[in-house]
Amino acid sequence: MSELKQTAGVPDIHFKGTREGVLIVVSETSNFSIMMENLKERLRMTKGFFAGSDVTIDLGKRLLDSQELQSLEELMSENNMNLVQIVQGPMKEETKSGPVLRSFARVNQNRSSDRTYWVKKTLRSGQKVNFDGNVVVIGDVNPGAEIVASGDVVVFGVLKGVVHAGATGNDRAIVAAGGLRPIQLRIAQYITRAPDEKKDQKLEGISEIAYVKEEMIVVEHYYGFLRNR
After folding, report:
1. Is residue 85 assigned to a domain?
2. Which residues of 4-35 are buried (b: 16+ CB within 10 A; e: fewer)?
3. Of 4, 35, 102, 107, which alpha carbon lies 20 to 30 A from 25's?
4. How many independent structural domains does the chain possess?
């Protein structure tokens, strides 16, 4: 879809309709406070026209801290808009995968364990998902890709990249995948990596799950239940 006309008097904020929802492109030149004021004014002038829309915000090379990201998420929520993802950070010249992704979903703000972000594609080298909640990937996680989640991480494919579940200290978080071959796997403060030995061919195709037991990460095949921890 073509770019929507920019409202006069609110510089550096561009709205663009896409098949996935609304893309908001924000100039990198203004500081965070000015950016937020401009965005608030732009939303006020649209008078709820975008309410209920899925939203991606492109910040260009700008990088926000966690408090600024939360303020941006709250602003979208106040305007009844579903913040799906924020694109920020410089392009990585050595890859074609694009900038770092920080992803959000419309959730119950009082229960972070209910927050789940669905990635319906394979994560390729150079891509990163950082989410306060659970992350589910319908695809593989290739070497060079990274997932950081405060909750669980579930991959409907093979996990070969870097993963950190329970990133805010939740050692009850789990990592599950169709195959666990991570370069590095972390749950809370505990770290491990894929074993060097080859897998038993008879067990190929059986899902695997990692969790913390007795202050170490245990990896086992998953048959539809989790053993006592």
Report:
1. yes
2. eeeeeebebbbbeeeeeebbbbbeeebeeeeb
3. 107
4. 2
